[in-house]
Amino acid sequence: MPENEFDKALTEAIEGILYRHVKPRFLWKLQRWMGLGIEKKMLEADDIFYRVCAKYISAKREEVRLQGINHQSPSGEGEDLLTSYIKLDTTQYETLNPSDDRFLKDVILSYIVAGRDTIASALTWFFWILSENPNVTAKIRQEINKNLQKSKTGQEKSSLDPSELNKLVYLHAALYESMRLYPPAPFERTMKAVWGEDASEFKPERWA
């Protein structure tokens, strides 16, 4: 698989942030000023972030311009997060500046950094625990087939109405239970005083 420069830059930036917590402040600031070590890699990573984000922001701005700005999108179907920020009504959100590429780049990075390892960890444990509990997997499949509508042609829909996800109560319960046992952040959530004697067992029913 070819190396992804954005992913590599993100990994190096996160590593640099970690080092900043263990190095004296004056030392990493000096390294940054001189362009040495991990601080040099962080500066290079920031250049990559801005270049890659700028390309997508420019393309998205052009797409929004051609389609026309509609602040009141009733369904939101097909509208991604970047589009939502570009189309923000600044009369209601005066502190935000969607015309500034740096602002949009920071927004993109905030979501990627916050969701990169946490989502990967949560989903890895979730699918592993489903493989160990086929009865739970069967219930989730049954719930999805029952509640998610197909298109009028009988084929699977290309997009999903987010409001339909509210019907998937058991799926939500299974996700909550998976994250209770294997949280992306290091928390202890298997205390018998809180969850009962079966605190270490995977039981989505305790949430449903």
Automatic annotation (TrEMBL):
Its cofactor is heme. The keyword Ion transport does not apply. Keywords: Heme, Iron, Metal-binding, Monooxygenase, Oxidoreductase. GO terms for molecular function: heme binding; iron ion binding; monooxygenase activity; oxidoreductase activity, acting on paired donors, with incorporation or reduction of molecular oxygen. It holds the Pfam family p450. SUPFAM superfamilies: Cytochrome P450. It comes from the Eukaryota. Belongs to the cytochrome P450 family. This is BnaA06g31970D protein.
